[in-house]
Each structure stands twice: as structure tokens, then as C-alpha cells.
Design goal:
This protein is an all-alpha fold. The protein is built from 19 helices and no strands. It is flat.
Length: 422
């Protein structure tokens, strides 16, 4: 009995030591992540050439992890402790760096001193978040798995956020540069805000008025809006017929809705070019208004069919019993219940028509009827400065992004509503 007690205490001490080691590693990783993000922001937004001494960051982060982990033996670390620990770690790193973190001098107090303290305070909070709800005095395999998942989730979120945001940021920054700055250093990731508002937006002014992008915006809006209208009207009728009516060939039609997507657009564009040339529809907006609905109706019909299958058929039968015609039932019962699906399908079709390039490039030759994607192709030549091309790309991208985020809840609801039948 007396021999078993020391062994039990030894195993407990070993588990506590493993928990403290885990907290140390988490603190070091959190510090490395936040210092890396901080250095990136210094380079991108501050315009400085920052260096990343990860060695000191890992060391001070490990010390921070020891403190946070020691507090977190049996209960969660209070936020004030995480803030204080991060601030102490930041001051320690500043001292080790000679108060010139990332190679920055004292002329950059915000990016240097304040940025360092903020990065390590966030590191302390990140370490606290990773350890929350987990006992470090009795580490089990489940605890290690939970901590590993949390670390991977944090690094995965940071990585994918960078992959998504950085190209758009580079495009926006390049659109605000002057021609001299673009030629001198096209990969510089900051903007000179001291050049004045007029010079800052000169690229957008040239693109909108000199290169006639205001007309292209109107053409794209017209084409996309009419495409949405035509697609929704025909897809609603087709989806309702496939879902509710009984007719010969209904099963085949239901299965062959997406048959057009078996053929790449590049295969269809050559015969369509020949046919539309003979019919006099090439180099006209009505020509696009025939092609775009033809390519978007199948997927819209498929999405609406899946949604209509989830609607109670008894409601429509009650409307028919009360004397409503079939079109009255669709207008008064089916469509009001299908607003999320209609919004998501309409947004999806609008994005396709707004961004479509291949058919617009092949069918449109007159600048007066160019859409935005066709105008971007005309803008992409050696005589046009690169900042004008980036400004045009921002003009093409921002409206559809705003529209997407505005209708995001409808898009998600409409896409998932037909996932469960019954």
C-alpha cells in the first residue's frame, strides 16, 4: 500500500508535467501566429520592411504558455490574467529586441511598441481560448485531441483567410497607386495616402469616364437583370410542372434537366457563333439574352424542383378546391412560400450573367454594348496602365460582393432548404 502511493503520485506528476508542456507549446504557437500576422500587417498597411524573429517569439510565447498553463491547472484562466501575461511577454520581447521589434525603429511607435503589445495580448487570449474547459493536471488522450483540433482550426482559419483576402487586397491597393509607383515597385503592398484624394482615385475616374465603364455597368446590369427575370419565370413553371403535374416523359425530363452541363461552353460557342451570325444576333445584347437564360435555366429549374418537393401539396390542393386556377395557386401559395429559394436562385443566376466572359467575348464586338467582363478584356492590353486594370477589376467585383453579402441569408436558406424531403 505504501509502495503504490508514490507510484500514483508520480503518474499524477507526469500528467501535470505533460499538461504544462502542452500549454508551453500552445503559447509558443500562438505567439508565432500572432507575430506573423502582425509582421504581415506592418508590411501591408504600414509600408515598412518588417523582419520576423520567430526564435524570440517562440521563446517568449513559451514562457507565456507556462504562466497561463500554471494558472489553468483546475479552472479557466481569467481574461485579466491572459491580458497581463501577454503584456509581460510583449515587454520581454521588446526588451530582447532592443525596443526595435521586427527591425523597426522608434519612429514607428504604433507598429513597433503598440503593435507588439497588442500581438502578445492576443496571443495570451488565444492560448487561454485553446485551453478553456480542459484540465491540465490530468491530461488524457481526449484532451490532447481537443487541443490539437483547436490549434489546427486556428491556423487553418488564418491560412484560408489570408488566401481569400490577400488577392482582393492586392487588387485594391494596386488600383490606388500612381503610374510612377506602379512602375517603380508593382509588388509594394501599401498605399501612399499622402498623394491626395484626387490622385488616389485617378484610376477609377479614368476607367469610369475615359474607358466608358459606366456604360458597361449599365449593359451588365440590364443583361443580368433580364436574364434573372426570364430564368425565374421559365424555371418556376418548369419546376412546378415536373414536381406537381403528371405527364408523359416527366421522369425523363426530371433526370435530363442538367444534361446541358455535360457539354463545355467552349464546345457550344463555335456552332452558336455561326448560327447567330447568320441570324443577325451576333454583336447584339438580345443575342446574349438568348444564350444566358438557355445556360442558367437548367440549374435554376433543378434547384427550384428540389425546393418545391419540400412544400406541402395539401396547401395547393386546398387552393384548387376553393376555386383557384393552377396559375393562381402558383402565384398566391407556391411563390410566397418559396421566397428563400427564389432569392438564392435569382442571386446565383445574376452572378453567372454578371461575370460571364466567354460568350460576351466571342459575340460582342461593338464597344457601345460591351458588358463589364468584355470591357475588362478590352482594358487588358499593353497600352493601359496596370492600375487602371486593377481599378476595373474592383468595379467588376465590388457590386456582386455587396449583393452577395446582402442576400447571403437567402442564398444559404434556399440552397439547403431542398436538402430534406418531407
Amino acid at each position: 500500500m505504501n509502495d503504490a502511493l508514490p507510484n500514483t503520485l508520480t503518474r499524477s506528476d507526469q500528467r501535470s508535467l505533460v499538461g504544462l508542456l502542452v500549454a508551453t507549446l500552445l503559447g509558443a504557437l500562438a505567439a508565432a501566429l500572432m507575430v506573423g500576422v502582425w509582421s504581415l500587417l506592418v508590411t501591408v498597411l504600414g509600408g515598412y520592411d518588417a523582419r520576423v524573429p520567430l526564435g524570440w517569439a517562440l521563446l517568449t510565447g513559451a514562457l507565456m504558455g507556462v504562466i497561463v498553463g500554471s494558472w489553468r491547472r483546475r479552472r479557466d484562466t481569467p481574461p485579466a490574467v491572459a491580458v497581463a501575461t501577454g503584456a509581460v511577454a510583449g515587454l520581454t520581447w521588446l526588451l530582447l529586441a532592443g525596443f526595435k521589434p521586427l527591425g523597426l525603429s522608434v519612429i514607428a511607435p504604433f507598429w513597433g511598441i503598440a503593435g507588439c503589445l497588442l500581438a502578445f495580448v492576443l496571443s495570451g487570449h488565444l492560448t487561454r481560448y485553446a485551453l478553456r474547459g480542459q484540465r491540465l493536471d490530468d491530461v488524457t488522450r481526449y484532451t490532447l485531441e481537443v487541443l490539437l483540433v483547436r490549434v489546427l482550426r486556428a491556423f487553418g482559419f488564418a491560412f484560408f483567410l489570408f488566401v481569400v483576402v490577400f488577392p482582393f487586397y492586392f487588387m485594391v491597393v494596386s488600383s490606388f497607386k500612381s503610374r510612377a509607383a506602379m512602375l517603380q515597385n508593382p509588388t509594394h503592398l501599401s498605399v501612399d495616402l499622402g498623394q491626395g484624394w484626387t490622385q488616389l482615385v485617378s484610376g477609377y475616374r479614368e476607367v469610369l469616364f475615359t474607358f466608358d465603364f459606366l456604360r458597361y455597368i449599365g449593359n451588365s446590369t440590364l443583361v443580368a437583370s433580364v436574364t434573372v427575370l426570364i430564368t425565374l419565370v421559365l424555371a418556376i413553371l418548369g419546376a412546378y410542372a415536373v414536381t406537381r403535374l403528371r405527364f408523359r416523359g416527366r421522369t425523363f425530363m426530371s433526370r435530363a434537366i442538367l444534361l446541358i452541363y455535360m457539354f463545355p461552353a467552349i464546345v457550344l460557342v463555335i456552332p452558336l457563333y455561326s448560327v447567330f451570325t447568320q441570324l443577325g444576333l451576333r454583336d447584339t445584347l438580345p443575342g446574349l439574352l438568348i444564350i444566358y437564360p438557355a445556360t442558367t435555366i437548367p440549374v435554376a429549374l433543378y434547384m427550384l424542383r428540389s425546393y418545391f418537393q419540400t412544400l406541402p401539396q395539401e396547401l395547393e390542393e386546398a387552393g384548387l378546391i376553393d376555386g383557384c386556377s393552377r396559375f393562381a395557386v402558383i402565384w398566391r401559395i407556391t411563390l410566397p412560400l418559396s421566397v428563400p429559394a427564389l432569392a438564392s436562385v435569382g442571386l446565383y443566376v445574376f452572378m453567372i450573367a454578371w461575370n460571364e466572359f466567354l460568350f460576351a467575348f466571342m459575340f460582342l464586338d461593338s464597344p457601345d454594348i460591351f458588358t463589364l467582363s468584355r470591357g475588362m478584356a478590352a482594358l487588358n492590353n499593353q497600352e493601359v496602365p496596370r492600375q487602371y486594370l486593377m481599378a476595373g477589376a474592383v468595379i467588376v467585383t465590388v457590386p456582386i460582393m455587396v449583393l452577395f453579402f446582402w442576400f447571403e441569408k437567402y442564398l444559404i436558406g434556399g440552397l439547403t432548404a431542398g436538402g430534406v424531403k418531407g
